[in-house]
Amino acid sequence: MVGRVVQHDEEERSFLRPDDVKLSFQLPSNGTMNYWIATISSDDISATKVVAKTVSGSARMKELHNFKEIAKAIIILSKHDNIVEVLGISLETVPYFIYQEYVECGTLKAFLTRNYESSGNAISHEEEISDQNINLQLTAFAVDICKGMLFLSEENYRHPALSSRKILISATGVCKLYDFCPVHVAMDTVSQILEKEVPPTAWLAPETIFIGHYLDKSDIWSFGVVMWEMYSLGKTPYDGLTCFEIESKLRRKQYCEQPSICPGGIYDTMLLIWNPTTDKRPSFARLQTSLLAFLNDMRKSNDDDGDDEIDSDEPVYSCVINDTSENIYIDYPMG
Questions:
Q1: Quick one: 114 and 193 in the same domain?
Q2: How confident is the model over 201-260, as pLDDT tens digits?
Q3: Which residue of 133, 157, 267, 288 could cross-link 258, Cys pair, CB 3.0 to 4.6 Å?
Q4: Domain end marker among 43, 75, 101
Q5: Regarding beta strands 86-90 and 14-15, do their DSSP bridges make them parallel or antiparallel, or are they unpaired?
Q6: C-beta of residue 143 within 8 angstroms of C-beta of residue 290
Q7: What is the DSSP secondary-structure string of 291-333?
Q8: How far is it, in rounded angstroms, from Cα 207 to Cα 171?
Q9: Residue 251: which domain range?
């Protein structure tokens, strides 16, 4: 299963006027995008809390054009459980806005660092959680992300430099992707990423880093890095290394080491993903099948009778909201 896809009438998502939206406060960000908590109230939409995304004042004309192209594309994208829903856009005058659903528990990165000590030496939950239960939760997240990426790839969308900061978690523990783009502007987006003073090299595929190519399976590589982030409980890949040092490791095929709690089969999947030959990387469809099999095996091992399989549309974990200040959308972590 790819996940629940809901078709919609064009009227369900609106081209909004600035008067329909009240901006409440700006969220922290460090890139070319600005994010606001806002409320939409229009003839078509009752008062709804949203995140308003816009291009910062430092953006170039090309970035402004691409933002408009992305907005026009994603407003007609079908709904999916693992994709942040776009509720409306405003393109009549600058600044342009995209209005997205508010997702309660913030980014996957924030969730990992909030719930687990970054050192990996101890678990920060009030009650100790076994590695087995942690892996069950993380694998459910991986399935969610894979379902979302499969949906995007089938709809001709891409997610350049996918990272745990570009994934949000709902109150019911469902992972949702945001900040993706249609194929026809993906290469421009990649070019902007590569031009950053400190690009997110650790999340980029070798063909993108070394020859500037961004192919269909470049997102597969980034997904493998996100898996590593999860099973390392929020650590940064290649932490402390410069972009040049990361590039040297990639040339020598010295990839991120197996995290201490990561099952061998999951790490083997990461190594399959990190194949320098793009055609030899598994597809998202194949990865979804593999990850669901891992997830069902984990659930069976936790279940006394061993008979129940997991419904792939049913979240394994419910997230507890401890601090609304952590519910933020932030741009790529290093620039």
A1: yes
A2: 999 999 999 999 999 999 999 999 999 999 999 999 999 999 999 999 999 999 999 999
A3: 267
A4: 101
A5: parallel
A6: no
A7: HHHHHHHHHHHHSSS--PPPPTTS-S-------GGG------T
A8: 37
A9: 108-326
CB distance 45 to 90 below 8 Å: no
Q: What is the CATH number of the domain that holds 148?
A: 1.10.510.10
**Token pair for residue 172?**
């019911």
What is the distance between the alpha carbons of residues 225 and 239, in angstroms, rounded to a whole number?
13
DSSP state of 291: H
Query: Which amino acid is residue 285, in one-letter code?
Result: A
Q: Which residues contact 135 (CB under 8 A, 6 or more apart)?
A: 231, 261, 262, 263, 266, 298
Task: Identify whether 335 is part of a domain.
Answer: no
Residue 294 lies in a domain: yes
pLDDT value, residue 327: 45
Is there a contact between 219 and 149 (Cβ–Cβ < 8 Å)? yes
Note whether 22 and 169 are same-domain residues: no
For residue 204, is it within any domain? yes
Which residues make Cβ contacts (< 8 Å) with residue 132, sequence separation at least 6? Answer: 298, 301, 302
Element (H, E) at 137: helix 131-154
One-letter amino acid identity for 319? C
Concatenated DSSP letters of 138-196: HHHHHHHHHHHHHHHHHTTEE-TT--GGGEEE-TTS-EEE-S-EEHHHHHHHHHHHHTS
Largest separation between any pair of C-alpha atoms in the chain: 61
Statement to judge: residues 90 and 175 lie in one domain? no
